[in-house]
Amino acid sequence: QLSEEYGPVFTVHLGSDPVVVLYGHDVVKEALVDRADEFAARGHMPVGDRANNGLGIIFSNNEPWLQVRRFSLTTLRNFGMGKRSIEERIQEESEYLLEEINKTKGASFDPTFMLGCAVSNVICSIVFGKRYDYNDKKFLALMNNMNNIFEITNSYWGQLYQMFPNILYYLPGPHNKIFSEFDALKAFVAEEVKLHEASLDPNSPQDFIDCFLSKMQEEKDRPNSSFYMKNLITSAFDLFIAGTETTSTTIRYGLLLLLKYPKIQEKVQEEIDHVVGRSRKPCVADRPQMPYTDAVVHE
């Protein structure tokens, strides 16, 4: 409605912050594709700015962000961490997820928790080099910390903080609990980093933390390096929290859509049975032979 009155580019104010809104394919493409470099920076998010203090991957900008992001992408893409690929880690975790689903014995259930655990464990395997049992107390505490962060951030108080951070920073209220949850998660990551420091073999990195520690050693004499301890802890934390919530939510809604469209679900199952069968796990190599399933996943 606003675009009908003001056109495809207009400004609104969220609290004291002016926000430029792009409406429609053409202007979005111009900004994010044709002029991607000019629009690559992330806007300020007061909760993230306070929690991460300009470090890490999610809430940082400019050259330090570019260095850490490039390193993280290269590390994950090449996966120079041990012998196991990301695909193998996902396949392994899918077995544990199926075990949990089978425990329901065909009864109705909410998959939110177990999907979160499964996706989080894949991230843990990549970042920390290990997975956790779904009943592990430390793991459950981590999941609880993460859920609280999203819940409080999306609450009335959390949104007020996003709009009026300079005022709410000094006021008591539920919004302050967000930052204690952030601190608890980072304390866990810091503990893992200490364990990795003690066992690090630069010639045989086993996970993301090992690779980052090795990079820190390489650049220890470089004065403006972005690779130092606080940035490692924040970057590992970012991978854990961002990778878990987004992916598990996407999978959950994929399941909801399959429930809504049972005929499409049947066609997907037929293609899986025809190409993969019931005696082995699906793999990325199956994708070219499964165009219907691939299309459903992407949609």
Describe this structure as you would to a colleague:
- This protein has a two-stranded antiparallel sheet.
- It is globular.
- The chain has 299 residues and is mostly helical.
- It is built from 14 helices and two strands.
- The protein folds into three domains: 1-40, no CATH class; 44-260, Cytochrome P450 (Cytochrome p450, Orthogonal Bundle), CATH 1.10.630.10; 261-299, no CATH class.
- This is unspecific monooxygenase.
- One of its GO terms (cellular component) is endoplasmic reticulum membrane.
- It comes from Pycnonotus jocosus (Red-whiskered bulbul).
- Its cofactor is heme.
Determine the number of helices (DSSP H or I, runs of at least 4 residues).
14
Rg calculated over all Cα atoms: 22 Å
Q: How many strand segments? A: 2
Secondary structure class reads: mainly alpha
Quick check: average pLDDT?
Answer: 90
In terms of DSSP E residues, the strand content is: under 5%
The percent of residues in helical segments reads: 55-70%
Whole-number tally of structural domains: 3
List the helices and strands in order.
HEEHHHHHHHHHHHHH
- CATH architectural group of the largest domain: Orthogonal Bundle
Task: Tell me, briefly, the overall form.
Answer: globular
What does the largest sheet look like?
2 strands, antiparallel
- Kindly identify the CATH topology of the largest domain: Cytochrome p450
Strand order of the largest sheet: 1-2
